Amino acid sequence: LRMFEVFERIITAFKEESMLSQAQLKRLLEHRYCSQDRSILSELFMNNFWNWLVERYPLWIAPNALTFVGLMTNVASTLILAWYSPDAKQTAPLWVYLICALSLFFYQSLDATDGKQARRTETATPLGELFDHGCDSVSQTFIVMQICMALQLGYYPIVVMLFWVSATLLFYCAHWQAYVSGMLRFGSCLIALTKLYNRMFQRLVSSMMRFRFDVIEAQFCIMAICTVTSICGPEVWKNELFGIELKILITALAAVAAVIALYSPLTVVFTGGVGKNGSTVADTSVLFPAVPLAAVVLPSMIIFCKSTSNAFLTHIVLYFIMFGIVSAKITCKLVIGHMTKSELQLSDSVFCGPLALFFNQYFDTAINEYPLLLICLVWCAFYFICQSVLLVKQICNFLKIECFRIPTSKSIRVRK
Protein backbone atom coordinates (compact mmCIF):
# COMPACT_ATOMS: atom_id res chain seq x y z
CA LEU A 1 0.00 0.00 0.00
CA ARG A 2 2.83 2.39 0.82
CA MET A 3 4.51 1.64 -2.50
CA PHE A 4 1.25 2.45 -4.27
CA GLU A 5 1.02 5.76 -2.41
CA VAL A 6 4.60 6.65 -3.36
CA PHE A 7 3.93 5.77 -7.00
CA GLU A 8 0.72 7.85 -6.93
CA ARG A 9 2.62 10.84 -5.57
CA ILE A 10 5.27 10.48 -8.28
CA ILE A 11 2.60 10.42 -11.01
CA THR A 12 0.92 13.47 -9.45
CA ALA A 13 4.25 15.32 -9.50
CA PHE A 14 4.74 14.30 -13.13
CA LYS A 15 1.31 15.69 -14.00
CA GLU A 16 2.10 19.01 -12.36
CA GLU A 17 5.29 19.35 -14.41
CA SER A 18 3.97 18.07 -17.75
CA MET A 19 0.45 19.50 -17.95
CA LEU A 20 -0.21 22.52 -20.14
CA SER A 21 -2.46 25.34 -18.98
CA GLN A 22 -5.73 26.06 -20.77
CA ALA A 23 -4.17 29.19 -22.28
CA GLN A 24 -1.29 27.11 -23.66
CA LEU A 25 -3.70 24.56 -25.10
CA LYS A 26 -5.67 27.29 -26.87
CA ARG A 27 -2.48 28.76 -28.36
CA LEU A 28 -1.42 25.25 -29.38
CA LEU A 29 -4.68 24.91 -31.29
CA GLU A 30 -3.95 28.20 -33.06
CA HIS A 31 -0.42 27.13 -34.03
CA ARG A 32 0.33 26.68 -37.72
CA TYR A 33 3.32 24.66 -38.88
CA CYS A 34 5.87 26.79 -40.74
CA SER A 35 9.11 25.31 -42.05
CA GLN A 36 11.63 25.73 -44.83
CA ASP A 37 13.45 22.71 -46.29
CA ARG A 38 16.25 23.36 -48.78
CA SER A 39 17.96 19.99 -48.70
CA ILE A 40 19.24 19.20 -52.19
CA LEU A 41 18.60 15.44 -51.87
CA SER A 42 15.04 16.12 -50.78
CA GLU A 43 14.44 18.38 -53.77
CA LEU A 44 16.08 16.18 -56.38
CA PHE A 45 15.28 12.63 -55.32
CA MET A 46 13.77 11.91 -51.94
CA ASN A 47 10.53 13.90 -52.21
CA ASN A 48 9.54 11.86 -55.26
CA PHE A 49 10.28 8.66 -53.37
CA TRP A 50 8.40 9.81 -50.27
CA ASN A 51 5.37 10.85 -52.35
CA TRP A 52 5.40 7.43 -53.98
CA LEU A 53 5.79 5.69 -50.63
CA VAL A 54 2.97 7.49 -48.83
CA GLU A 55 0.52 6.45 -51.54
CA ARG A 56 1.24 2.82 -50.57
CA TYR A 57 0.20 3.34 -46.94
CA PRO A 58 -3.28 2.15 -45.95
CA LEU A 59 -5.54 5.07 -45.05
CA TRP A 60 -6.15 3.62 -41.58
CA ILE A 61 -2.49 4.03 -40.50
CA ALA A 62 -2.13 7.03 -38.17
CA PRO A 63 0.74 9.45 -38.92
CA ASN A 64 1.98 9.33 -35.32
CA ALA A 65 2.18 5.54 -35.55
CA LEU A 66 4.60 5.91 -38.47
CA THR A 67 6.77 8.30 -36.46
CA PHE A 68 6.78 6.07 -33.38
CA VAL A 69 7.56 2.85 -35.29
CA GLY A 70 10.47 4.60 -37.02
CA LEU A 71 11.85 5.81 -33.70
CA MET A 72 11.55 2.39 -32.04
CA THR A 73 13.30 0.73 -34.99
CA ASN A 74 16.19 3.16 -34.73
CA VAL A 75 16.44 2.82 -30.95
CA ALA A 76 16.32 -0.99 -31.11
CA SER A 77 19.09 -1.25 -33.72
CA THR A 78 21.32 1.11 -31.73
CA LEU A 79 20.78 -0.83 -28.50
CA ILE A 80 21.65 -4.08 -30.28
CA LEU A 81 24.90 -2.51 -31.48
CA ALA A 82 25.54 -1.11 -27.99
CA TRP A 83 25.11 -4.61 -26.54
CA TYR A 84 28.09 -5.76 -28.57
CA SER A 85 30.09 -2.54 -28.25
CA PRO A 86 29.19 -0.64 -25.04
CA ASP A 87 32.52 1.18 -25.06
CA ALA A 88 32.43 1.94 -28.83
CA LYS A 89 35.65 -0.09 -29.21
CA GLN A 90 34.41 -3.63 -29.78
CA THR A 91 33.64 -5.17 -33.15
CA ALA A 92 30.02 -6.28 -33.43
CA PRO A 93 28.78 -8.92 -35.89
CA LEU A 94 28.82 -7.28 -39.31
CA TRP A 95 25.10 -7.80 -39.83
CA VAL A 96 24.39 -5.47 -36.91
CA TYR A 97 25.97 -2.52 -38.75
CA LEU A 98 23.82 -3.29 -41.79
CA ILE A 99 20.73 -3.40 -39.57
CA CYS A 100 21.66 0.06 -38.27
CA ALA A 101 21.97 1.44 -41.81
CA LEU A 102 18.64 -0.06 -42.86
CA SER A 103 16.87 1.07 -39.69
CA LEU A 104 18.11 4.63 -40.21
CA PHE A 105 16.76 4.61 -43.77
CA PHE A 106 13.49 3.15 -42.46
CA TYR A 107 13.31 5.84 -39.77
CA GLN A 108 14.11 8.59 -42.27
CA SER A 109 11.39 7.40 -44.65
CA LEU A 110 8.70 7.15 -41.97
CA ASP A 111 9.74 10.47 -40.43
CA ALA A 112 9.50 12.19 -43.82
CA THR A 113 6.13 10.70 -44.72
CA ASP A 114 4.22 11.09 -41.46
CA GLY A 115 3.24 14.65 -42.35
CA LYS A 116 2.26 13.60 -45.87
CA GLN A 117 0.11 10.83 -44.42
CA ALA A 118 -1.53 13.35 -42.07
CA ARG A 119 -2.49 15.61 -44.96
CA ARG A 120 -3.59 12.61 -47.03
CA THR A 121 -5.90 11.36 -44.29
CA GLU A 122 -6.98 14.87 -43.21
CA THR A 123 -5.71 14.26 -39.69
CA ALA A 124 -3.03 16.96 -39.43
CA THR A 125 -2.98 18.46 -35.92
CA PRO A 126 -0.48 20.36 -33.74
CA LEU A 127 0.06 17.09 -31.87
CA GLY A 128 1.59 15.59 -35.01
CA GLU A 129 4.26 18.29 -35.18
CA LEU A 130 5.04 18.02 -31.47
CA PHE A 131 5.14 14.22 -31.63
CA ASP A 132 7.42 14.31 -34.68
CA HIS A 133 9.92 16.73 -33.16
CA GLY A 134 9.83 14.87 -29.85
CA CYS A 135 10.75 11.59 -31.55
CA ASP A 136 13.48 13.37 -33.53
CA SER A 137 14.96 14.80 -30.33
CA VAL A 138 15.33 11.27 -28.94
CA SER A 139 16.54 9.72 -32.17
CA GLN A 140 19.40 12.14 -32.82
CA THR A 141 21.41 10.82 -29.84
CA PHE A 142 20.97 7.20 -30.95
CA ILE A 143 22.06 8.11 -34.49
CA VAL A 144 25.22 9.75 -33.14
CA MET A 145 25.99 6.66 -31.07
CA GLN A 146 25.62 4.51 -34.20
CA ILE A 147 28.34 6.38 -36.06
CA CYS A 148 30.61 6.43 -32.98
CA MET A 149 30.34 2.65 -32.63
CA ALA A 150 30.74 2.04 -36.37
CA LEU A 151 33.95 4.10 -36.41
CA GLN A 152 35.08 2.67 -33.04
CA LEU A 153 35.61 6.15 -31.65
CA GLY A 154 35.70 4.79 -28.11
CA TYR A 155 39.48 4.87 -28.47
CA TYR A 156 39.07 8.66 -28.65
CA PRO A 157 36.49 9.36 -25.88
CA ILE A 158 36.80 13.13 -26.24
CA VAL A 159 35.79 12.76 -29.90
CA VAL A 160 32.67 10.80 -28.87
CA MET A 161 31.81 13.58 -26.46
CA LEU A 162 32.32 16.26 -29.12
CA PHE A 163 30.21 14.28 -31.61
CA TRP A 164 27.33 14.15 -29.14
CA VAL A 165 27.72 17.79 -28.10
CA SER A 166 27.76 18.91 -31.75
CA ALA A 167 24.60 16.95 -32.59
CA THR A 168 22.85 18.28 -29.49
CA LEU A 169 23.81 21.87 -30.31
CA LEU A 170 22.70 21.57 -33.93
CA PHE A 171 19.31 20.07 -33.12
CA TYR A 172 18.60 22.41 -30.21
CA CYS A 173 19.70 25.52 -32.09
CA ALA A 174 17.43 24.62 -35.02
CA HIS A 175 14.45 24.76 -32.65
CA TRP A 176 15.91 27.75 -30.82
CA GLN A 177 15.76 29.75 -34.05
CA ALA A 178 12.17 28.52 -34.55
CA TYR A 179 11.32 29.79 -31.06
CA VAL A 180 12.82 33.15 -32.02
CA SER A 181 11.65 33.52 -35.63
CA GLY A 182 8.54 31.33 -35.73
CA MET A 183 9.94 29.22 -38.59
CA LEU A 184 11.88 25.95 -38.55
CA ARG A 185 14.57 25.95 -41.23
CA PHE A 186 16.40 23.00 -42.79
CA GLY A 187 19.19 22.79 -45.34
CA SER A 188 21.18 25.67 -43.91
CA CYS A 189 24.77 24.42 -43.92
CA LEU A 190 25.90 25.71 -47.32
CA ILE A 191 23.45 28.59 -47.13
CA ALA A 192 25.29 29.70 -44.01
CA LEU A 193 28.59 29.35 -45.85
CA THR A 194 27.21 31.57 -48.60
CA LYS A 195 26.28 34.32 -46.16
CA LEU A 196 29.58 34.02 -44.35
CA TYR A 197 31.86 34.25 -47.37
CA ASN A 198 29.62 35.85 -49.98
CA ARG A 199 31.72 38.97 -50.36
CA MET A 200 35.00 37.10 -50.83
CA PHE A 201 33.93 34.11 -52.93
CA GLN A 202 30.63 35.17 -54.48
CA ARG A 203 30.84 33.14 -57.70
CA LEU A 204 32.33 30.04 -56.10
CA VAL A 205 29.87 29.90 -53.24
CA SER A 206 26.91 30.67 -55.51
CA SER A 207 27.73 27.54 -57.48
CA MET A 208 28.05 25.59 -54.21
CA MET A 209 24.49 26.63 -53.34
CA ARG A 210 23.32 23.86 -55.63
CA PHE A 211 24.81 21.35 -53.18
CA ARG A 212 23.06 22.11 -49.90
CA PHE A 213 23.97 19.77 -47.06
CA ASP A 214 21.88 19.21 -43.98
CA VAL A 215 19.90 16.56 -42.07
CA ILE A 216 18.98 14.26 -44.96
CA GLU A 217 22.50 14.37 -46.40
CA ALA A 218 24.04 13.74 -42.97
CA GLN A 219 21.78 10.73 -42.46
CA PHE A 220 22.81 9.26 -45.81
CA CYS A 221 26.47 9.72 -44.85
CA ILE A 222 25.85 7.76 -41.64
CA MET A 223 24.02 5.05 -43.61
CA ALA A 224 27.00 4.85 -45.96
CA ILE A 225 29.45 4.53 -43.05
CA CYS A 226 27.38 1.77 -41.42
CA THR A 227 27.00 -0.05 -44.75
CA VAL A 228 30.74 0.07 -45.51
CA THR A 229 31.42 -1.13 -41.95
CA SER A 230 29.02 -4.05 -42.46
CA ILE A 231 30.99 -5.09 -45.56
CA CYS A 232 34.60 -4.38 -44.60
CA GLY A 233 34.45 -4.29 -40.81
CA PRO A 234 35.23 -1.28 -38.58
CA GLU A 235 38.96 -1.83 -39.14
CA VAL A 236 38.56 -0.22 -42.58
CA TRP A 237 38.38 3.19 -40.93
CA LYS A 238 41.90 2.72 -39.53
CA ASN A 239 43.32 3.01 -43.05
CA GLU A 240 45.15 6.25 -43.69
CA LEU A 241 44.69 8.97 -46.27
CA PHE A 242 47.39 11.65 -46.41
CA GLY A 243 48.85 10.03 -43.30
CA ILE A 244 45.64 10.46 -41.27
CA GLU A 245 43.21 7.71 -40.26
CA LEU A 246 39.94 7.82 -42.18
CA LYS A 247 37.93 7.96 -38.95
CA ILE A 248 39.83 11.10 -37.92
CA LEU A 249 39.23 12.70 -41.33
CA ILE A 250 35.52 11.95 -41.06
CA THR A 251 35.46 13.45 -37.58
CA ALA A 252 37.26 16.60 -38.78
CA LEU A 253 34.85 17.03 -41.70
CA ALA A 254 31.89 16.57 -39.35
CA ALA A 255 33.31 19.20 -37.00
CA VAL A 256 33.74 21.72 -39.82
CA ALA A 257 30.22 21.02 -41.10
CA ALA A 258 28.79 21.46 -37.59
CA VAL A 259 30.49 24.83 -37.10
CA ILE A 260 29.23 26.04 -40.48
CA ALA A 261 25.71 24.75 -39.84
CA LEU A 262 25.54 26.50 -36.46
CA TYR A 263 26.18 29.86 -38.10
CA SER A 264 22.73 30.13 -39.71
CA PRO A 265 20.48 29.49 -36.66
CA LEU A 266 22.67 31.57 -34.36
CA THR A 267 22.52 34.43 -36.87
CA VAL A 268 18.73 34.27 -36.71
CA VAL A 269 18.82 34.23 -32.90
CA PHE A 270 21.15 37.20 -32.55
CA THR A 271 19.43 39.19 -35.29
CA GLY A 272 16.28 39.36 -33.21
CA GLY A 273 12.93 37.64 -33.12
CA VAL A 274 9.40 38.28 -34.31
CA GLY A 275 8.11 39.29 -30.88
CA LYS A 276 8.03 42.70 -29.27
CA ASN A 277 11.34 44.56 -29.48
CA GLY A 278 12.99 41.62 -31.25
CA SER A 279 11.97 39.03 -28.65
CA THR A 280 10.82 35.43 -29.16
CA VAL A 281 7.36 34.31 -30.25
CA ALA A 282 6.50 34.30 -26.53
CA ASP A 283 7.84 37.86 -26.08
CA THR A 284 10.72 36.58 -23.95
CA SER A 285 14.48 36.97 -24.18
CA VAL A 286 16.04 35.41 -27.28
CA LEU A 287 19.07 34.42 -25.19
CA PHE A 288 17.38 32.57 -22.33
CA PRO A 289 17.10 29.23 -24.25
CA ALA A 290 20.90 29.08 -23.95
CA VAL A 291 20.52 28.48 -20.19
CA PRO A 292 18.80 25.05 -20.31
CA LEU A 293 21.14 24.05 -23.15
CA ALA A 294 24.17 24.91 -21.03
CA ALA A 295 22.58 23.07 -18.08
CA VAL A 296 22.78 19.87 -20.14
CA VAL A 297 25.95 20.24 -22.20
CA LEU A 298 28.33 21.62 -19.57
CA PRO A 299 27.55 19.02 -16.85
CA SER A 300 27.81 16.21 -19.42
CA MET A 301 31.34 17.35 -20.27
CA ILE A 302 32.44 18.11 -16.71
CA ILE A 303 31.14 14.85 -15.21
CA PHE A 304 32.67 12.84 -18.06
CA CYS A 305 36.10 14.48 -17.75
CA LYS A 306 36.18 14.44 -13.93
CA SER A 307 35.34 10.75 -13.55
CA THR A 308 37.99 8.91 -11.54
CA SER A 309 36.83 5.46 -12.62
CA ASN A 310 36.58 3.86 -16.05
CA ALA A 311 32.81 3.39 -15.74
CA PHE A 312 31.90 6.12 -18.21
CA LEU A 313 34.61 5.02 -20.65
CA THR A 314 33.59 1.36 -20.45
CA HIS A 315 29.93 2.30 -20.91
CA ILE A 316 30.33 5.49 -22.91
CA VAL A 317 27.28 4.74 -25.07
CA LEU A 318 24.95 4.43 -22.06
CA TYR A 319 26.42 7.61 -20.58
CA PHE A 320 25.59 9.74 -23.59
CA ILE A 321 22.23 8.05 -24.11
CA MET A 322 21.32 9.19 -20.60
CA PHE A 323 22.35 12.76 -21.34
CA GLY A 324 20.66 12.43 -24.73
CA ILE A 325 17.36 11.79 -22.95
CA VAL A 326 17.95 14.90 -20.83
CA SER A 327 18.68 16.97 -23.94
CA ALA A 328 15.57 15.53 -25.62
CA LYS A 329 13.49 16.68 -22.65
CA ILE A 330 14.69 20.28 -22.76
CA THR A 331 14.34 20.34 -26.55
CA CYS A 332 10.73 19.18 -26.23
CA LYS A 333 10.13 22.00 -23.76
CA LEU A 334 11.56 24.42 -26.33
CA VAL A 335 9.29 22.99 -29.06
CA ILE A 336 6.28 23.32 -26.73
CA GLY A 337 7.33 26.89 -25.92
CA HIS A 338 7.41 27.69 -29.64
CA MET A 339 4.08 26.03 -30.43
CA THR A 340 2.24 27.48 -27.41
CA LYS A 341 4.05 30.84 -27.42
CA SER A 342 4.96 30.41 -23.77
CA GLU A 343 7.95 31.10 -21.55
CA LEU A 344 10.58 28.42 -20.97
CA GLN A 345 10.99 27.01 -17.46
CA LEU A 346 14.44 25.85 -16.39
CA SER A 347 13.35 23.61 -13.51
CA ASP A 348 12.80 19.99 -14.51
CA SER A 349 13.04 16.73 -12.57
CA VAL A 350 14.94 15.11 -15.44
CA PHE A 351 18.01 16.95 -14.13
CA CYS A 352 17.98 14.66 -11.08
CA GLY A 353 20.00 12.15 -13.11
CA PRO A 354 22.92 14.45 -13.97
CA LEU A 355 22.79 15.97 -10.48
CA ALA A 356 23.14 12.54 -8.88
CA LEU A 357 26.26 11.83 -10.96
CA PHE A 358 27.66 15.27 -10.17
CA PHE A 359 27.19 15.07 -6.38
CA ASN A 360 28.51 11.52 -6.34
CA GLN A 361 31.77 12.85 -7.78
CA TYR A 362 31.68 15.80 -5.37
CA PHE A 363 31.62 13.35 -2.44
CA ASP A 364 34.58 11.36 -3.81
CA THR A 365 32.52 8.76 -5.66
CA ALA A 366 30.65 7.44 -2.62
CA ILE A 367 28.67 5.12 -4.94
CA ASN A 368 30.15 3.03 -7.73
CA GLU A 369 29.63 5.05 -10.90
CA TYR A 370 28.37 2.24 -13.14
CA PRO A 371 25.33 1.15 -11.07
CA LEU A 372 24.59 4.82 -10.39
CA LEU A 373 24.72 5.49 -14.14
CA LEU A 374 22.20 2.70 -14.72
CA ILE A 375 19.90 4.10 -12.02
CA CYS A 376 20.13 7.60 -13.50
CA LEU A 377 19.50 6.26 -17.01
CA VAL A 378 16.41 4.37 -15.85
CA TRP A 379 15.16 7.43 -13.97
CA CYS A 380 15.61 9.80 -16.91
CA ALA A 381 13.99 7.36 -19.34
CA PHE A 382 11.10 6.60 -16.95
CA TYR A 383 10.51 10.29 -16.25
CA PHE A 384 10.68 11.28 -19.93
CA ILE A 385 8.30 8.51 -21.01
CA CYS A 386 5.78 9.20 -18.23
CA GLN A 387 5.71 12.92 -18.90
CA SER A 388 5.43 12.37 -22.64
CA VAL A 389 2.49 9.99 -22.20
CA LEU A 390 0.69 12.39 -19.85
CA LEU A 391 1.26 15.33 -22.19
CA VAL A 392 0.08 13.43 -25.27
CA LYS A 393 -3.04 12.23 -23.41
CA GLN A 394 -3.84 15.78 -22.33
CA ILE A 395 -3.50 17.15 -25.87
CA CYS A 396 -5.51 14.25 -27.31
CA ASN A 397 -8.32 14.91 -24.84
CA PHE A 398 -8.27 18.62 -25.67
CA LEU A 399 -8.29 18.05 -29.45
CA LYS A 400 -10.70 15.10 -29.14
CA ILE A 401 -8.44 12.80 -31.14
CA GLU A 402 -6.49 9.57 -30.62
CA CYS A 403 -2.72 9.52 -30.95
CA PHE A 404 -2.27 6.22 -32.82
CA ARG A 405 -5.67 5.72 -34.39
CA ILE A 406 -7.65 7.34 -37.19
CA PRO A 407 -11.43 7.22 -36.67
CA THR A 408 -13.01 4.65 -38.96
CA SER A 409 -15.55 7.17 -40.25
CA LYS A 410 -12.82 9.58 -41.35
CA SER A 411 -10.80 6.78 -42.97
CA ILE A 412 -13.85 5.69 -44.98
CA ARG A 413 -14.69 9.27 -45.98
CA VAL A 414 -11.14 9.95 -47.23
CA ARG A 415 -11.13 6.65 -49.14
CA LYS A 416 -14.31 7.68 -50.93
UniProtKB/TrEMBL annotation:
> Per UniProt, which keywords does this protein have?
Membrane, Transferase, Transmembrane, Transmembrane helix
Q: What is one Gene Ontology biological process annotated in the Swiss-Prot or TrEMBL record?
A: phosphatidylethanolamine biosynthetic process
Its domain of life reads Eukaryota
Looking up InterPro entries in the UniProt record yields: CDP-OH_P_trans, CDP-OH_PTrfase_TM_dom, CDP_ALCOHOL_P_TRANSF_CS, CHOPT
GO terms for molecular function, please? Answer: diacylglycerol cholinephosphotransferase activity; ethanolaminephosphotransferase activity
Q: Where this protein primarily resides, as one coarse class?
A: membrane
Q: Where is the signal peptide?
A: none
The record's listing under Gene3D superfamilies reads: 1.20.120.1760
**Listed GO CC annotations:** endoplasmic reticulum membrane; Golgi apparatus
Q: Which residues cross the membrane?
A: 65-86, 92-110, 153-172, 218-237, 249-274, 286-304, 310-332, 369-392
Tell me which family the UniProt entry assigns to this protein.
Belongs to the CDP-alcohol phosphatidyltransferase class-I family.
Record-given protein name: Choline/ethanolaminephosphotransferase 1
Organism (species): Trichinella spiralis (Trichina worm)
